[in-house]
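Run log, item B.
One chain of 368 residues. Sequence copied directly from the ordering sheet:
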Amino acid sequence: MPAERAKESNFASHGRQSVKPLVKTDELYAALDLGTNSCRMLIARPEGNEFVIIDAFSKPVHLGKGLEEYGTLSRAAINRTIQALHICQKKIKNHGVKNARLVATEACRRARNGKMFIQQVKTRTGLQLEIITPAEEVRLAAVSCAPHVAPVTEQLLIIDIGGGSTELAWIDLTQVAPEQRSDALRNMKMDCTKTNKCCPGGVQMIDWISVPLGVATLNDQFNDVDCDTARFALMSCAFEDAVMEFGRTIDFSDIVARGAFQIIGTSGTVTTVAASFKGLRRYERDLIDGVSMSCAEVEQVTQEYLRLGMSGRRKAACIGNDRCELIMSGAAILQGVLRVWPTDKLTVADRGLREGLLYSQMSEKRLS
């Protein structure tokens, strides 16, 4: 079963499942992430600094299919996506959710008819989607990874591989007490993006970048290359070139030597690679979220994907038909990053914008 689909079937792994929650509706929060490939939503209630998932939804909608070639969202993609959003709207209504943030990312940012699509969604479903900036996408990805920040981490690199773009954030935590680093990142605000000043709590966003190359867009750029190995090599080099200058002024050799540098990767690509490395026959979130992999282990999985070829990947556990092609462009992005910043500790995070949206909403409510 593909990782992104399988993990939704186990959505209660964040906490206890409650189909009919015995909580006030103003204590429930919804977070929806409409990306280039998928529409995903979580409904949750707060529990301390964390949350318990009440309901979840995830469906591949391929909103950005054809965007690279035509520059617009196709009618078929729009209809597929709105059908999925109707389901989300019903879940929000049935649970009586009053706190919600529903965002759209790269596909809607790039499409000439992106704003028109947002209005169409409002008219047909009643949902008000917000096209967020790359800076806000970076922040939310960083916030979502807060639980996996190690107390010893002084410099943190976060990688979020999406369908239409890839976000990287370099964060300095040296001004934060080790035991407070996870909470400080969880509470990072919008005004912390790309500034040389410390944010409240001491978190410092040294630099960030949103590269318009995700698993779908990168694959589309090289879909005319027939050889699997050659296509992978070209994709990896293209992404490596795109991020070569990012963070190059930062001397992190000392913190690497001291074990104070951490990379956290979040996306379906990263979790699928980790599941393949562990040899899982069925994706299990609890066995993947928070595990570590080295560059060598990522390379080992990548080479096995290439050996399998398209037909083999289609039949492989945790990949399947939905991801058999895009997993290679995702692996090429991951390999490109790890060539520029080699590490023996890539932390795998089964989380993303939805979790970041939930943490941010709950944090704002506590502080209001």
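Observations after the first pass:
- The CA atoms of residues 311 and 324 lie 8 Å apart.
- The chain has 16 helices and eleven strands.
Flagged for discussion on Thursday.
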